[in-house]
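ARCHIVE CARD
Drawer: 12
Card no.: 0347
Subject: one protein chain, sequence and derived structure
Cross-reference: see card 0346
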Amino acid sequence: MDMTELKTGIKILLGKELSPEDLNALKQIIVRQETVALAESKTADGKVLSYEGELVQGTAVNLVTEAGSEPAPDGEHMLEDGVTKVVIAAGVVASVEKAGEMPEVPAAMPELVQQMETKFASQVKGIEDSYSAKFAAQKSELEKLQGEIKLMATTFAKLIETPIEVVKMSETKQKTWEEMTPKERYDLAHPIE
């Protein structure tokens, strides 16, 4: 588009004559807008995000729809590469994270991380020792019970193998208490096992 066409188009739109300075300022605005390159990225769910420049913290992001463009909705958006997660708040990138990538640790953090790792390792060791003692006690109790079960099984087997002596009662008439001798009374009251 040359300057004459631009001037004619603007006159028609505004309905008035523009000065060369106004026309030049307007041309600069149009040229600046034409040189702005919008980049696009697709999300894992197929939405298209458009932004100016690089996708970094602070970049304004729009969601491209059939109706046009609108500020991107707040939340986490996984890009189609399956690795990059973009967090958007109020239409602006709050953070860009790569999966498996550890966030940058400030210089003072390694000492704190080391202290936390030491504390965690100590707690894990305490838990392991506690459970080891419990398992050892349970194993000892289990071995004791297994020994008792073997003893009971052996005793039961012997009882099964022992013949039973059947004693037949004689068909003689039984004596009453008054008819019994003192020895018979004693034997009846204190049977021999």
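Annotation on reverse: Residues 38 and 52 are 5 Å apart (CA to CA). The first strand starts at residue 38 and ends at 42.
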